[in-house]
Amino acid sequence: MIVSKRAELEDIHLKHDLLGSIEVGILILDRKFHVQLWNQFMENHSGLTPNAVRDKCLFDLFEEIDRDWFTKKCDPVFALRSPAFIIWEQRPYVFKFNAYRPITSQSPHMYQNVTIFPLTSLSGEVEQICVVIYDVTLEAVSKQRFLSVNTQLQKMSRTDGLTGLYNRFYWEEMCELEFKRAKRTEQFSSLIILDIDHFKNINDTYGHPAGDLVIKTMAKIIKTAIRETDVAGRYGGEEYTIILPNTEAKSAKMVAERIRRLTEAFPVEYEGIEINFTISLGISMLDMSYDNYTTWIERADKGLYEAKERGRNRTVMSK
């Protein structure tokens, strides 16, 4: 009997050491979500000892856990005896633990993956479930960094560095997509090309920094004058392009004239000097007979050429 008791105690001690040494959280809950087991990991990160949580309701101990959501996650585990999984991309954490590790200190909380699996009794019924908490903060932070850098690189690859507008390469991709969409749906769509008048004189007279300021100011004017659904780009040098989806010719001309008047009304101030400048604009409404988007651009460019030929500081609708 003594030998049997000693063996039982050694078995309990071994299990206790095992639960305390592994780097995952382990807790066992009954059907009422009362805590039956609470390992060292859970104690370390919650500050609650096993005696403090024993037979207490999990939702009373941790108010951050959404009771309805967690219960629905556990219902199939009890009823169907099938495991359930929660990944940090779906929900960053179940338990709002601090991220203590120096290597993961950039995150204010511990990101967690969670596995919930059934514990079958001798009668074959599932009266308890085991919840395993994995600290995946390092992986989560690394992935978020990667996604952030990737997003920045994507933005850089499609954005003009000086103006913040789309660069020519990306804008042409968007133009081709809009051309196909408008032709497929047979909807109106218009395109504006504009150019800063006598821009070389600005550079020659005031210097290239002043010219850059004029280019950036022009981009800001365009942004204030168009809708969120419109697509503006810097086509090259002092030339800009704008796609106006679902816009017929008359409305496109109103937008072009608004940009032209704003440009006239707001000179650029550079080193105490006011630099007045104007723009010329060409417009082309998409014609269903165009074979490709480059024809659409060429028609708008033809309007721009005519605007310059007729004295600049004007808008011309290409036909």
Task: Explain how this protein is built.
The chain folds into 2 domains: 2-144, Beta-Lactamase, CATH 3.30.450.20; 159-317, Reverse transcriptase/Diguanylate cyclase domain (Alpha-Beta Plaits, 2-Layer Sandwich), CATH 3.30.70. It starts with a helix and ends with a strand. Strands 2-1-5-4-3 form a 5-stranded antiparallel β-sheet. Strands 7-8-6-11-12 form a 5-stranded mixed β-sheet, with helices on both faces. Strands 9-10 form a two-stranded antiparallel sheet. With 319 residues, it is α+β, with helices and mostly antiparallel strands. Helix 8 (199-206) crosses helix 9 and helix 9 (208-225) crosses helix 10. The chain has 11 helices and 12 strands. It is 47% helix and 22% strand. The chain is elongated and about 95 Å long.
